[in-house]
Amino acid sequence: MKTWTPDASQHFELWLGRVRSSVAGDPSVNPDEVAQDLRAHVHAELEATPEPVTKTELDRVLDSLGNPMQWSEGARAAKPAATVRFYTGASDAVTDWQEKLAGEGGKPVLLFLLTLIAIPTFDDVIGIPLMAFAYFVARSHLTYSREPLTGYARWMIYFPLAVGSGLLAGIVLGFPLTFDGQPNRLEMWWVLGVWWVLVGTLAAREPKRVRSALKPFAESFESSHGRMLSLIGAAFLIASSVLLLAR
């Protein structure tokens, strides 16, 4: 038997539970036998898929089976009232969201919300720790998750990564400006020029570390980009030195 990802296994068991509930009111149907037959059918359909079986592959097979609420002859014969249909539809929607949140879908939503809370609270005690936590978890998910990120989950995971990477790059490039006692404008450019020459040189020597730190937004970063930063820093350094000596 093929191995399944944890979220795929959990999703399938929840789906089978809904199947049992949907046919339980039909005396001509044994819910356990239906579930057993469906389990065998789904496993057979997934036999050709690579391991581990993902939730995406499972959903493809489950969608082909249709809506479990339509399988029971008794359920088709006795159409429920409008209020019952509305309640059933709302219940199914809530169940679907619960299944998504219980699986891999819950993490992107949580990280997205944590980032939204952290952004306006950077000046408070809670903002930076929340942002750091969301960034760390998003990086861990992107690096070690066995399933590719797709759809809304991808953008929800990328959101804290984009904010965190932007903050990290800004802190590194503007590090001299974080000290108290700001110099005048020419001295500021001179200090930044020296700093960018140093940072650019280090980045040119270790481009893999830059790509890792700013993953996935710096995948194309090469040593030439680090050298370009050094040249820009050198230009600032030379220009500000000339202006300072001309005073």
| Structure summary, number of beta strands | 0
H and E string: HHHHHHHHHHH
User: Which spans have pLDDT < 50 for at least 5 consecutive residues?
Assistant: 73-88
Radius of gyration: 28 Å
Helix content: over 70%
**Range of strand content:** under 5%
Mean pLDDT: 79
Distinct helical segment count? 11
- What oligomeric assembly is this protein in? single chain
Structural class: mainly alpha
- Largest β sheet strand count, sense and barrel closure: none
How far is it from the N-terminal to the C-terminal residue, by CA? Answer: 80 Å
Shape: elongated
Count of spatially separate domains: 3
Kindly list the characteristics that best describe this protein.
3 domains, 247 residues, single chain, mainly alpha, 11 helices
Can I get a quick summary?
With 247 residues, the chain is mainly alpha-helical. Helices cover 71% and strands 0% of the residues.
